[in-house]
Amino acid sequence: MTAKILAVLLLFALPIQAKTRIEAAYEAGELDLETALIYQVLSVRAPDQLPAIYRESGGLAVCGTPHLVQAMSAAPNLSADFQARLGKLVKDRPDAQHNLLSPSGHFRVHYDTEGVNAVSPRDDDANNIPDYIDLALAVLDSTWVLEIEQLGYNPPLSDNGLGGGDEYDVYIVELGVGRSFYGFAYPGTSGATTYSHLEIDNNFTDPGYKQTRGLDALRVTIAHEFHHAIQFGYYATFDGSWWQESTSTWMEEVAYPQIDDYLQYLTYFLSQPQRALNSGPYQSLHTYGSAIFSHFLDQRYSRELNRLIWEEVGQRKSVNLDHFDRVIRQVEPGGLGVVMGEFAVWNYFTNNRYRDPYYAEGNLYPTVPTRDIAVDAEAVVRDTSLVDATGSVYLRLEPQLRAGGIDLFFDANQGAWRRHLLLVGPDTTSAQLVSEPTVRITGWDQFDEIVLVATSAERTGLAYQHLFTAQFDPSLTDPDRPAALATLLKPNYPNPFRPNQHPHTRLAFDLAFPSRKTRLALFAANGTLVWEQDLGERAARADHAVLWDGRNAAGNLVASGIYHLLLEADGTAAKRTLAVVRD
User: Fold this and answer.
1) In Å, what is the CA distance from 309 to each residue of 196, 269, 359, 389, 392?
2) Domain ranges of the chain
3) Chunked in runs of 10, what are the mean pLDDT values of the chain (583 residues)?
């Protein structure tokens, strides 16, 4: 398929909510392809030269590199006039009033002190260099050390002195006009690999910079855009843009974990779990949200896995997922299909569902949507939906303290699937791989929720269909549950509890009946309430458990002494004492 045809398909493929005015005009036949592509580049390079009707404002600030990569990749198959117009837009670099080498000598930074592109003149250290430029030089050098010397990526390709020397060129310009862009990596040619230069904003204080602004935006933008420069030495063609944005957005967090810029994009990925990992178009925010996949590879396997994939992509000159599979098999013999199944499990345990040992910052992530299945006694409930290759669906049931069990059936006559059964209790979680079409869960009321996560293990293709059925049976009680279970508050362990030696003590209890209002409370010897926890609904079962770290409601360690523990469960109460010893 030619680059021209691919460019057309990508423009058509944009979701309605992601289309710019330029893209909508192209679809309506108001703009031809070449004009649309030139206008896309102008929206990045010179928004004031766009006809007013096509100017944009608002929305999240993003990286402008994909617009440039799209146009450059399409150019060889378009007219000579288009190539000439594009060449002037991309290859003519800004005229800057000053330039400085970074202390390491790896970078040449070009900037203005007067005019629209001027940086702030603030110079607190009185070295005759604006503080903004001092910081940019330092961040660039530290980024080189991180990405090339520590993480092992290849240096970016040389532009053979186009910016005045052999150093890598970075231009500081005003990018906050119209729709704000954090920065761009400009590909110098339309080949599979290319040299480049960077342009980044001169202050990051314009209204378009919302979540990450100012000097923090300067830091993460350099980490992100310089990674694009590195990537262009491996593979620069536009079909790789989703992977370019995934790993560049991930690299921001590697370099500056305290800034968390990537969080603003995750909802655009997690809100559509049925979409393919590499689904386009790459202008959409889904590609930035796909950074979560790079985080997953980093945290679940190893940080170097992202680099190894880039090396394979560079060797093959393709981002076909077969190449990802080949690399992944070095750490996971089951390959990409197995990894995508586990990725889907990790993506469930975020926000209020967060549990160890999943994403380090998973409590800050949005949640994936679920298909909630409501079942009645002995009625069969059916559900079906469409999932793209590498996409997932989450089928969720809530026992709601009803005694009995459930039979689940999953069938798909298309493609390969990975299925995991999540059994989520108030204190425990398990994720079990399911190999048979039917699975039976007895005594399901011991769980707060039961989730079947089905993931397409295919690497290509759209709209794989499945059939899911669920049948509740009240007779499927847990045979292991004691016939005469009593409501009992058990001895805590360890007891006595020494907060200076133990991270926590375990408060365990059994419930003879389901409880909709469950509470643990700790009182001092004089009757003062020290600590309490509302446990909500709890099933009738043995060995519920809560961990207490020895701190009161204000977060301070309690004094040595004897304390009284009270369990309340739907009007039933049980009491026990425990000892705290402060060494």
Assistant:
1) 21, 21, 21, 19, 23
2) 3-353, 371-473, 488-580
3) 41 47 86 90 84 80 88 88 84 90 98 97 97 98 98 97 95 84 91 95 92 96 98 95 96 97 95 91 77 97 97 97 97 95 97 92 97 85 93 95 91 90 87 89 91 96 93 81 66 89 89 85 91 89 87 93 90 86 87
HEC per residue, 126-151: CCCCCHHHHHHHHHHHHHHHHHHHHC
Alpha helix (H) residue ranges in 256-401:
267-270, 285-289, 291-296, 304-316, 321-328, 335-348
* Cα atoms in the 13 Å half-sphere on the side-chain side of 64: 27
Residues 6 or more apart from 283 whose CB is under 8 A from it? Answer: 14, 18, 20, 66, 67, 70
Phi, psi of 385 (to 5 degrees): -160, 175
How far apart are the C-alpha atoms of 279 and 239, rounded to whole Å? 10
Question: Options 3.40.50.300, 2.60.120.1050, 1.20.58.480, 1.10.486.10; which CATH number does 371-473 get?
Answer: 2.60.120.1050
The answer to whether 575 touches 566, Cβ cutoff 8 Å, is: yes
CB 50 within 8 A of CB 42: yes
C-alpha–C-alpha distance, residues 544 and 490, integer Å: 10
Cα separation values, 209 from 132, 172, 217, 264, Å = 17, 16, 8, 12
- The C-alpha atoms of residue 153 and residue 170 are separated, in whole angstroms, by 19
Of 361, 211, 196, residue with least CA distance to 285: 211
d(C-alpha 201, C-alpha 31), whole Å: 30
Number of CB atoms found within 10 A of residue 193's CB: 16
Please provide the DSSP assignment of 525-538 as one string: TTS-EEEEEEEEEE
* Residue-level pLDDT at 9: 39
Q: Tell me if 169 sits within 8 A of 162, measured CB to CB.
A: yes
Q: Which amino acid is at 444?
A: W
Interatomic CA distance for residues 409 and 421, integer angstroms = 12
Q: Which fold has domain 488-580?
A: Immunoglobulin-like (2.60.40)
Three-class SS of residue 22?
Answer: helix
Contact present, 431 and 407 (Cβ < 8 Å): no
Do 172 and 109 meet the contact criterion of CB atoms below 8 Å apart? yes
CA distance 189 to 198: 14
Q: Residue 25, CB half-sphere, CA atoms under 13 Å: how many? A: 17
Residue 560, CB half-sphere, CA atoms under 13 Å: how many? Answer: 6
Where b means 16+ CB within 10 Å and e means fewer, 83-115 reads bebbeebbeebeebeebeebeeebbbbbbbeee
Neighbour tally for 380: CB within 10 Å: 12
Q: Which are the contacts of 95, defined by CB distance < 8 A and separation ≥ 6? A: none
β pairing state of 417-424 and 371-372: unpaired
- 433 Cα distance to chain centroid: 23
What one-letter code names the amino acid at 240? G
Token couple for 69: 């990569």
Helix/strand/coil for 521? strand
Provide the whole-model pTM. 0.82
